[in-house]
Amino acid sequence: MLDWTDRHCRMFHRQITRHTWLYTEMVTTGALLYGDVARHLNFNDEEHPVALQLGGSEPADLAKSAKLGEQWGYDEINLNCGCPSERVQKGAFGACLMAEPQLVADCVKAMRDAVAIDVTVKHRIGIDQVDSYEFVRDFVGTIADAGCQTFIVHARNAILKGLSPKENREIPPLKPDYAYRLKRDFPQLEIIINGGIKTLVEIDAHLRQVDGVMIGREAYHNPYLMAAFDARYYGDAAPVKSRAEVLQAMLPYIHDQLARYGKVAGKSEPGGGLKLNSITRHLLGLMAGMPGARTFRQTLSDAKKLAAGDPALLMEAFARTQPLAA
C-alpha cells in the first residue's frame, strides 16, 4: 500500500507475526532504473518472507527491476495490476493493465526469465463496467499460460474514471465468488483473495474456498489481529508477544534507525533525515479495540514529544493506557 507498508511498517508487523508474507509498497520501474535504488529496496533481514511489488508495463524494464529485487534478497516479485489511481494510469500500469492481458503475460514471462524467485500478479476482477466473470477468467488464463502460478485477487472492480482510490476500495461491490470460481476453474493455480476482509472468521471462511488471504487496511489499522495468524494458519505454537512486548521489541530497531539515518539528509529517507514519527505512525493501531486506544494514539501523535525524538515515547504511550484498562 503506497505510503503505508514501508520497511518500518513491515518491521513492526514482523514483531506480531513470524510467518505471514509481507509486501512492499508498489515501486515503479522508473524509480528503480533511474532513481535511488537503495532508498526503494533497502529492507531488514527480519522481514522475510517479504515480496517486492512492482509497477510497470514494459517487459524489459520489469525484468531489470525484478532482477534488482532478487539481488537485494526479496523472496517474491509481485506485479501490480490492481491499483486504480489516475497517477498510476498515466504511467500505463496498475489496474488499466487488465485491458491488455497479453502485455501482462509478456511482462510476467520477461520477469520469470530474469529471476529464479516466484513472480506473482495482483489484480482486480474487472475494470469500469466490465464485470463479467469471463473477463477475469480469461485474464488469469492468459497470464497463467506465461507461467504465473499465483494470483492475488482483489475481488471488486476498479473504476478507472470517477472514483478516487479510497472510493475504489469501498464502492464497487465485493464479489468473492469470482475468486472462488477461479480456484475451481484453475485448481492448479494458487488463488489468494483480497478485499474488505477484517476478521478471523472471514479469513477461515475464505480459506475453505481458496488457497490464501491477503489482508490490507485491516492489518494496518488493527495490526494485532495478526497475533493469531502463526498458530492458527502456520501451526506455530510459540508464545505470542503481548502488545507491550511488541513495543519493547521495536525499541532497539528504532534506536538503530535513528542513529543510522536520523541526521543524514537524504540517506534512504525522503526529504532528509529519519524522524521518529516516520516509524511511530505505523504503530497507532496497535491498541485498536482496547481500553485506552485513543489515549495511546494521542500520546504517540504528540508533536512536541515526537520532536524530542525519544523512542521511550512508545512505552510512555502504553503506560498511559493501563489505568484505563484496569
Automatic annotation (TrEMBL):
PROSITE patterns in alphabetical order: UPF0034 (PS01136)
NCBIfam families the UniProt entry points to: PRK11815.1, yjbN
Name of the protein described by the UniProt record: tRNA-dihydrouridine(20/20a) synthase
Cofactors that this protein relies on: FMN
Reactions listed under catalytic activity: 5,6-dihydrouridine(20a) in tRNA + NAD(+) = uridine(20a) in tRNA + NADH + H(+); 5,6-dihydrouridine(20a) in tRNA + NADP(+) = uridine(20a) in tRNA + NADPH + H(+); 5,6-dihydrouridine(20) in tRNA + NADP(+) = uridine(20) in tRNA + NADPH + H(+); 5,6-dihydrouridine(20) in tRNA + NAD(+) = uridine(20) in tRNA + NADH + H(+)
List of catalytic residues: C83 (proton donor)
Gene: dusA
Organism: Noviherbaspirillum autotrophicum
Role played: Catalyzes the synthesis of 5,6-dihydrouridine (D), a modified base found in the D-loop of most tRNAs, via the reduction of the C5-C6 double bond in target uridines. Specifically modifies U20 and U20a in tRNAs.
UniProt entry keywords in alphabetical sequence: Flavoprotein, FMN, NADP, Nucleotide-binding, Oxidoreductase, RNA-binding, tRNA processing, tRNA-binding
